[in-house]
Every structure is written in structure tokens, then in C-alpha cells.
Write a structure and sequence with these properties.
It is a single chain. The chain is built from no helices and eleven strands. By secondary structure, the protein is mainly beta. The radius of gyration is 14 Å and the shape is elongated. The mean pLDDT is 95.
């Protein structure tokens, strides 16, 4: 079982930067994918970035060139560095972990509680 806790969200002016953190507790298996999602008011949750343990990274078109996802496996922490922020980036940002656990546990998906990012004009 895994718990995820996001932090770092705050109010920031357009053009500013933020670094979000997601700390995990519990057992993280070798084959896993960490991702950041976000959900703005009245909109569906969307994928922002993914990072596999093998190093494969993917970004949504809306954040390419402005965001960088990284992970520290020793600290069980994943980061999302966000630069040149726009008002459209305003959303609740969620950390997501996908992994295949041993025996009957099987494939599992975990979510954090979310952290609010607000970008003012």
C-alpha cells in the first residue's frame, strides 16, 4: 500500500515559477510510472507529465517547454518544476503512481489529495 502527499501549490503571478513535490510512503516496486495530473474548475482531469523509473518522460502539449518532471527514488519523491506560468495553469494538481504489486495485489493506482495552484493575471 502506498500513500502520496503533494505540496508546494500556492498563489503565483503569471510568468512566475513553482516547484511541486509529491512524497510517497510504502512499498514502491521497480516497474512503476509516476505522473502529474491537474483539474481546473469545470474541466476534466488531464495528464500533465509522466516519468517511468527507466527514465521515459512525456509531457502534455500545453506544458511542453515550461515544465520539468523529475524523481528522486531514494527519497521516494517526484517533482514538477513549472516555469512561465499562465492563468490557464490554475488547477488542483494531483500526484499519481501506477505499479504492478506482487501476488494477489496486482496492478494498483494511487492518487494524492491534490495541491492548489493559482496563477493570477
Amino acid at each position: 500500500q502506498v500513500q502520496l502527499v503533494e505540496s508546494g501549490g500556492r498563489l503565483v503571478q503569471a510568468g512566475g515559477s513553482l516547484r511541486l513535490s509529491c512524497s510517497a510512503s510504502g512499498t514502491i516496486v521497480s516497474a512503476n510510472t509516476i505522473a502529474w495530473y491537474r483539474q481546473a474548475p469545470g474541466k476534466q482531469r488531464e495528464l500533465v507529465a509522466t516519468f517511468t523509473k527507466s527514465g521515459r518522460i512525456n509531457y502534455a502539449d500545453s506544458v511542453k517547454g515550461r515544465c520539468t518532471i523529475s524523481r528522486d527514488n531514494a527519497k521516494k519523491t517526484v517533482y514538477l518544476q513549472m516555469n512561465s506560468l499562465k492563468p490557464e495553469d490554475t488547477a488542483v494538481y494531483y500526484c499519481n503512481l501506477q505499479q504492478n504489486e506482487p501476488y494477489e495485489l496486482g496492478y494498483r493506482v494511487y492518487w494524492g489529495q491534490g495541491t492548489q495552484v493559482t496563477v493570477s493575471s
